[in-house]
Amino acid sequence: MVSSFRPIEHDLFSEENHMLNALNPDILNLQNKRLHPPFQIGIIASNLMPGNPVFRNVIRKSMKTIKAADIMTTNVVTAKKDMVLTDVIALLLRWHISALPVVDDDNTLIGIISEIDLVNMTLDGNARDTRVEEVMVTDIVSFSPEAELAEMVQSFSKHHLRRVPILSGQKVIGIVSRRDILREMLRRYDRY
């Protein structure tokens, strides 16, 4: 009986799978060999299972290559220091975000105002008459576009942050939120 399978070139050696190849000696030994499809599927399935150490290493290594510039939101909604708090509340609700960087006329970061700052204000004052500069936080954690994801994640955890501005010099060029990080994690897991 003649097999209905024709040997095909193994596609795990593509540029896209270079990290998997580098981490798995079994796959390295298969380079330049012709394989039948069932064997290919077995290799892929056994190495890309979430519990497999190879899979964990692929994800871990791929996450180390991510920079703030890769995942930041660049259309940043900002506030000015002379805005009243009701205007800030409207922006937060409209854009479904939890904080706004406060910038001057040159887009230089001077503070940040978050939902918790506003919630605290509802108990203590009048949001229609209070300006952003009166309640904004000026001790800000920020990163450059070249900051590594691991460094940002540690800072998020240590300081209980929900988002950080990304600065070029002192100018706001982006923002990274926990949601941006989660989105990238899911994208990496789906890819590998």
Verbal overview:
The chain is an alpha+beta fold. It has helices spanning 18-23, 25-30, 37-47, 53-63, 68-71, 85-95, 115-124, 132-135, 149-159, 178-191, and strands at 8-9, 34-35, 99-103, 109-114, 163-168, 171-177. Strands 1-2 form a two-stranded antiparallel sheet. It has a two-stranded antiparallel ribbon with strand order 3-4. The protein is elongated.
Largest beta sheet: strand ordering: 1-2
Structural class: alpha+beta
Chain-averaged pLDDT: 78
Highest CATH level, the class of the largest domain = Alpha Beta
One letter per element, helices H and strands E, the order comes to EHHEHHHHEEHHHEEH
**The CATH homologous superfamily of the largest domain:** CBS-domain
For the biggest sheet, the summary is: 2 strands, antiparallel
What would CATH call the architecture of the largest domain?
A: Roll
Percent of residues in helices comes to 40-55%
Tell me the CATH topology of the largest domain. CBS-domain
In terms of per-residue confidence, which ranges show pLDDT below 50 for 5 or more consecutive residues? Answer: 1-46
Radius of gyration: 24 Å
Shape category: elongated
Number of contiguous helices: 10
Instruction: Tell me what portion of residues adopts beta-strand conformation.
Output: 5-15%
The span between the termini is: 37 Å
How many domains?
Answer: 2
Number of strands: 6
Write the layout of secondary structure elements.
Elements: E1 8-9, H1 18-23, H2 25-30, E2 34-35, H3 37-47, H4 53-63, H5 68-71, H6 85-95, E3 99-103, E4 109-114, H7 115-124, H8 132-135, H9 149-159, E5 163-168, E6 171-177, H10 178-191
Antiparallel strand pairs: 1-2, 3-4, 5-6
